[in-house]
């Protein structure tokens, strides 16, 4: 199990605390320092069953500067979104937990973190 975190994020800290409390075997990836490649982002999206615009933090200043709010949310624009997430990792929703069974969740709630724990 791996969790992508921003240590400044309270949701990330809460998720890590819950993983610790449950004795989970996991690794932490500080994705702002160890930036995921486009291929890694595509793989996580597949595991999540989501599109890149669904994990994009569109209210971040960088998102507004890029104008992502006006980008099309369709298959033909998918590569553009993935490239933006790889170049601007602050835009990636957090935390993302990849479970050992090949799935992943965006762990913003206790229920989502517990869902990932159930998939170990």
From TrEMBL:
UniProt xrefs under Pfam families: ArsC
Family membership noted in the UniProt record: Belongs to the ArsC family.
PROSITE patterns in alphabetical order: ARSC
Leader sequence segment: none
Full protein name: Arsenate reductase family protein
InterPro entries linked to this entry: Arsenate_reductase-like, Thioredoxin-like_sf
Superkingdom of the organism of origin: Bacteria
SUPFAM superfamilies found in the cross-reference section: Thioredoxin-like
């Amino acid at each position: 199990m791996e969790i992508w975190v921003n240590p400044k994020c309270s949701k990330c800290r809460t998720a890590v605390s819950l993983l610790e409390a449950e004795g989970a075997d996991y690794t932490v990836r500080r994705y702002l320092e160890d930036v995921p490649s486009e291929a890694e982002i595509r793989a996580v999206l597949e595991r999540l069953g989501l599109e890149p615009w669904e994990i994009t933090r569109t209210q971040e200043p960088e998102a507004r500067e890029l104008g992502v709010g006006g980008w099309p949310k369709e298959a033909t624009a998918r590569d553009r979104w993935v490239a933006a997430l790889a170049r601007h990792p602050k835009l990636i929703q957090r935390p993302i937990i990849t479970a050992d069974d090949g799935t992943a969740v965006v762990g913003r709630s206790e229920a989502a973190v517990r869902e990932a724990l159930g998939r170990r």
